[in-house]
Amino acid sequence: MLMIEAPSPNWDAREQGRIDMIVLHYTGMPSGAEALARLRDPVAKVSAHFLLEEDGRLFRLVAETERAWHAGVSYWQGQERLNDVSIGIEIVNPGHEFGYRPFPDVQMRRLRTLLDDLVARFHIRPDRVLAHSDIAPDRKEDPGELFDWQVLARAGIGLWPEVGAGDGARGDVADLLAAIGYRRPHDPVSLRTALVAFQRHWHPYAVDGQADESTLERLAAVADAVSRVACGEPR
């Protein structure tokens, strides 16, 4: 795959587990050039494995076999220290602070090509292709509600079950969030935070942290799909 080599000094050796997760970010800076400079700045102490520009140019900053510093304090499906087991992809977009906008088609096409390769090579389960906001909902909101997870799912990447797929059994909201992978909420604030993260990824039509009927339906469908994938059943 054609890409531009732009090595970052911000990496070290992986310490635990095999690579089994991909985390998608947006850069959240005014320009891609500024984001690339920051990810290569040794003072910043942040990086990712790849940076994808809006025009489709792809930069490799850190080898997939090494640990990039992109996830930070994070949690998913009982696991922490997710830099050890994940590949991080920074997608150029100014983000909520600098003029959040839809991700261009050319950028999404290039992302699908990259993800096809990574998912195949590292055998990434669909419930392990995630947003930064999924694994750090109290700190992050990227890549946000304008990111088109559905178009990736149609290409066989990630998880986007239809409502009504499977048994769709309802349950306690906190239980459903934990079954999907989020850290179990223990109070109203953490519950709303996790629900907002869920909605950004799987129900972007109402990112308000409220467990309304449509959000509950989506929660049940995603929890059911995660359970099926974990058991090796078709999603």
Structure write-up:
It is a single chain. This protein is α/β, with parallel strands linked by helices and about 240 residues long. It has 2 domains: about 140 residues, 3-Layer(aba) Sandwich (Lysozyme-like), CATH 3.40.80.10; about 60 residues, no CATH class. It has 8 helices and 10 strands. The strands form 3 sheets. It has a 6-stranded mixed beta sheet with strand order 1-5-4-9-3-10. Helix 6 packs parallel to helix 8. The protein is globular. The model has no long low-confidence stretch (mean pLDDT about 95). Belongs to the N-acetylmuramoyl-L-alanine amidase 2 family. It catalyses: Hydrolyzes the link between N-acetylmuramoyl residues and L-amino acid residues in certain cell-wall glycopeptides. One of its GO terms (cellular component) is outer membrane. This is N-acetylmuramoyl-L-alanine amidase. Keywords: Cell wall biogenesis/degradation, Hydrolase.
Query: Structural class, please?
Result: alpha/beta
Biggest sheet statistics: 6 strands, mixed
Instruction: Work out the number of β strands.
Output: 10
Please state the CA-atom Rg, rounded to the nearest Å: 17 Å
**SSE succession:** EEEHEEEEEEHHEHHHHH
Under CATH, the topology of the largest domain can be stated as: Lysozyme-like
The CATH homologous superfamily of the largest domain corresponds to: Peptidoglycan recognition protein-like
- Name the beta content range: 5-15%
Q: Based on Cα principal axes, name the global outline.
A: globular
Distinct helical segment count: 8
Question: Largest sheet, order of strands side by side?
Answer: 1-5-4-9-3-10
Mean of residue pLDDT values: 94
CATH architecture designation of the largest domain: 3-Layer(aba) Sandwich
Which ranges are low-confidence, i.e. pLDDT below 50, for 5 or more consecutive residues? none
GO cellular component, one term: outer membrane
Pfam families: Amidase_2
EC number: 3.5.1.28
Protein name: N-acetylmuramoyl-L-alanine amidase
